[in-house]
Amino acid sequence: xxxxxxxxxxxxxxxxxxxxxxxxxxxxxxxxxxxxxxxxxxxxxxxxxxxxxxxxxxxxxxxxxxxxxxxxxxxxxxxxxxxxxxxxxxxxxxxxxxxxxxxxxxxxxxxxxxxxxxxxxxxxxxxxxxxxxxxxxxxxxxxxxxxxxxxxxxxxxxxxxxxxxxxxxxxxxxxxxxxxxxxxxxxxxxxxxxxxxxxxxxxxxxxxxxxxxxxxxxxxxxxxxxxxxxxxxxxxxxxxxxxxxxxxxxxxxxxxxxx
Length: 259
Known about the structure:
This protein is mostly helical. Helix content is about 55%, strand content about 0%. It has three domains: about 80 residues, no CATH class; about 90 residues, no CATH class; about 50 residues.
């Protein structure tokens, strides 16, 4: 902060006191933060994300690997207050941010409609059927980038990159799909492209290596961890088969099981 000559303005002090009532008065105009640690940056990231509608408490819980959502809510403390008092990013930065999101969304939709040879997931299979019909009618490009951009800007198309490597096309969804697909019905809005399937293949390889390393400990305490990891590994295999990605079926047994 000293090297870049970053000092607090009157506006900075006002926002700091509002969002940190227990530390009000410790930041002075022309001065710097009383302290700045990696943990402060972690919490600042959460407040920034929530107050600018870039995520929710569930997003925070997954991103920061919190054990429960109460901790996530604590991290985002006062972010709603910041939003209601309009303490948001400056307008030009927000426009740049929106433009970057639009470009990323169009790239993802272009991959789905015009690049990926195979699509899986419930929504992916519906799109693939429609895509095949249109290609059969002689269309070379199913959706142009300009058409996709117009649909993204109008709100008719929304897309979110999932922790699983696929995409969710439901803007209001807050499921943690990396977990939910194992214990609940698969998401109706999911799309998995060839590129995403390859990412899942690499994730499966890492999970198998991790499973075998833990399993070799032959510790009964690891049974639940290994069981969850095995279910995750097996849940990926049908996707790899649909995208014609070769793999050896996983059939390892857990060595130490409570009787």
